[in-house]
């Protein structure tokens, strides 16, 4: 999509829109914080306008930036935590490589083998990830089942190893 058509009919310059969206996505700023920052710079923009920009342009930025992400290594650490999203408790699955680079994340209502399998499949399908040599997980019983199913479907290489540890997988050696 050309830049001209992306910002067609917008009241503000493309650079200002992208600056607001980038700051919102990168830093812990609220829409009202950004409204105040822009007002200090002589750009009166409402916080709801910045919200709409974020909703419209964030997916496009993600799509364009993803191919340029640093390629990850083959030692993964996977864990999940319980977070509240819009008033609903959900499981947040997250994978990082041994150097701390985020591979992928996934929100799920359930904490079972199907959710773990969906998460692994999503992480394996991204363009910036390397096929894992080892995956370190906690003692959640869902991981081995999902791992075995993916190996049977040949989504994971035969040499890939699943390591379970009682320790936090972020701290485990790869």
From TrEMBL:
Q: Which Pfam families match?
A: DDE_Tnp_IS240
Q: Which UniProt keywords apply?
A: DNA recombination, DNA-binding, Transposition
Q: Looking at the record's lineage, which domain of life comes first? A: Bacteria
Q: Which residues form the Integrase catalytic domain?
A: 63-174
Asked whether the keyword DNA-binding is assigned, the reply is yes
InterPro entries recorded: DDE_dom (IPR032874), Integrase_cat-core (IPR001584), IS_Transposase (IPR052183), Transpos_IS6 (IPR047930)
Q: Which NCBIfam families match?
A: transpos_IS6
Cited PANTHER family: BLL1675 PROTEIN
Protein name (database record): Integrase catalytic domain-containing protein
Origin species, per record, is Ktedonobacter robiniae
Give the classification, highest ranks. Answer: Bacteria, Bacillati, Chloroflexota, Ktedonobacteria, Ktedonobacterales
């Amino acid at each position: 999509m050309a830049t001209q058509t992306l910002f067609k009919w917008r009241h503000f310059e493309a650079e200002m829109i992208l600056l607001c969206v980038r700051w919102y996505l990168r830093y812990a700023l609220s829409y009202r914080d950004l409204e105040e920052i822009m007002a200090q710079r002589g750009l009166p923009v409402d916080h709801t306008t910045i919200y709409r920009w974020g909703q419209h342009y964030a997916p496009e930025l993600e799509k364009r930036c993803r191919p340029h992400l640093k390629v990850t290594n083959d030692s993964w650490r996977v864990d999940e935590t319980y977070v509240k999203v819009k008033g609903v408790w959900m499981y947040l699955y997250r994978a990082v490589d041994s150097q701390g680079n985020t591979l992928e994340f996934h929100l799920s209502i359930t904490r079972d083998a199907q959710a773990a399998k969906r998460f692994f499949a999503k992480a394996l399908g991204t363009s910036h990830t390397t096929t894992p040599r080892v995956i370190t997980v906690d003692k959640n019983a869902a991981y081995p089942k999902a791992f075995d199913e993916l190996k049977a479907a040949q989504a994971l290489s035969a040499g890939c190893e699943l390591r379970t540890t009682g320790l936090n997988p972020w701290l485990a050696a790869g």
